[in-house]
Structure formats: C-alpha cells, structure tokens
Amino acid sequence: MPSEKISLTHFSLSLSAPHHDFQVFAFAGYEAISQPFCFMLDLVSEHTSMDLESLLGQPAFLQFAPDSGGIHGLIDQIAQGDSGQRLTHYSITLRPHLARLEHCTDQRIFQELTVPQIIERVLEKHGLLATTFNFHLGTNYPKRDYCVQYGESDLHFIQRLCEEEGLHYHFEHSPTAHKLVFGDDQTVFPELEPVIYRQDTALAGTEPVIQHYKLRLETRPNSNVRRDYHFEKPLLDTKGSANVNRRIELEEYDYPGGFTSNDRGDHLAQRALERLNHDYLSGEGRSNQARLVSGHFLRLSEHPNKEWNDLWLLTEV
C-alpha cells in the first residue's frame, strides 16, 4: 500500500557513528512479507567530506512517525553527490542484516535437523544471535534426513526452505534494532490501529486516512496433489492433497512430493495451496498513514462497501 503523502514536517536519521549532521531530505522504500526491505534516503550535510567506508554497514534508524515509528537497518550503500554553497548531498540505502546473506554462497549438507534448526544455523553463521530472530510456529516440523545447499546464496537457501515448509517472515523495528520473525500462520501478525476510508483528499494532512482502495481477484489453482514413493512400502499409495471449493477447478500436481507419510503429504499440499493462493483475493490502496507496516493487520473502517470493513493483512508497503 503506497503512501501518497505523510503528514509530518520532520524526518530524522539516527546513526551510531559520531560527528554526523545528516538531515533527511527525502526517502522512498519498499517492504513486503518474506522479503528483505529496502529504503533509499536522500540526505544533506554541511560536511563536504565524509569517511564513507566507515559508515558502510553501520546500523541506522529512520524515524518517520511521531511515536518513534520507523525503519531500523544497516547501511547497505552510501554515496556522496554534489556540493552547493552550504550543503552537500548524500544518499544511503538501508537494508536488514538478512540481506547480506545474498552475497554469500555455500555448499553444505545438513543431517537430522528440522528446517527451523537449519535456518538457525545459517543465521548464526552470519553473526545473528538468538536475540535478533524468533520462531513463532504452530506446527512441529520433522527432521530432514539429508538437506543440501548447493551453489546457492544463503539467503536463497533460507527462502527456499521457507517456501517448501510454508514459513513466512517479517521484521519488527525499534530505534535500536530490527528483529526477524518467522511464522507459519497468521497469529504472529500484530494488529495496527484502525484507519478510516475517506476518498475526499481534503482530509489529508489533518488525520490518517485511506484515500483509495480497490479489490482484485485472480485466477489461481484450487487443488494441489502430490505423490511420492516409499521404497520400504512399495504398495502404499503415498499421496497428499488439499483443495478449496471454487467455480473454476484447476489442479497443480507434483512428483516426487518429498514425503513418506500421507499426513506429511497432506501438510505439504495444504501449505503449497496456501502459497499458490496468497494473492487470490487482494486489496490495493493509498494512504497518508505513516505507521503502515507489512506483516501487520489493519482494520479498514467507514468504507461504503461494508464487506470491505474488515481486517486486512498488509503484505506489501
């Protein structure tokens, strides 16, 4: 949900590095569930020379909401631009620690570990302590006899494991840190304060409103079927399936499904169907509310279509 105009007169950037006088001139950003966020900031400073290398990788907090709401990340990119009579232009990009994992590839074998345990080992390899990430899971995951990372980045490896098991992640921000939160259902997502719908943009700047909102339906499979072969039980019909009732019937079939019990097959089929249908019904809007954060529920209110006045999960901002 893009923000048309945030009704604030001041944004601020906090850095642990001393002796900086950066002022935020403008910023744009993107964040979504199960993706590393990216925020690009245009800054100005009275200093015509900065040690850019010393700032690269430093933690920073961009505050853009009056209640200390904002984005905490690491400086992933920094550049110096033109200098005027008094001010020099700089630009930085903030991304999470997790984004660094896309620059590291490996070839590893993991044995007798669950997917959450494998992810934890990869994160710890990059210095992410247990205090910087959480698993809020409602399902017990089986140990994998043999799991291989082969020539893929550590970030892609984690993304692949999450997709296979139906895990998702989002970030929680504070002025001093950002936390990576993994989940497998919607109970992990907190709820934001309700926002009213007002198509009349004259209210923009006086109170947070949703100014535009539209609903979209897309064609997606309504059934997922997967099969596998159990060499110790060759006569067993090893199958998993999941479906939802829809007027248009479309099936995705997968073999081998990567399981040896039908219960496990049903679980994987259900997660695959949920992944395929995550955008079957979606809404898109525009707001001046600065506190919209992906991975949070938002209640829409006072829309003329009363069926739309409900909780909506913010998947992308």
TrEMBL record:
InterPro entries noted in UniProt: T6SS_RhsGE_Vgr_subset, T6SS_Vgr_RhsGE, T6SS_VgrG/RHS
Pfam families: Phage_GPD
Superkingdom of the organism of origin: Bacteria
PANTHER family recorded: PROTEIN RHSA-RELATED (PTHR32305:SF15), PTHR32305
Protein name: Rhs element Vgr protein
Organism whose genome encodes this protein: Pseudomonas amygdali pv. morsprunorum
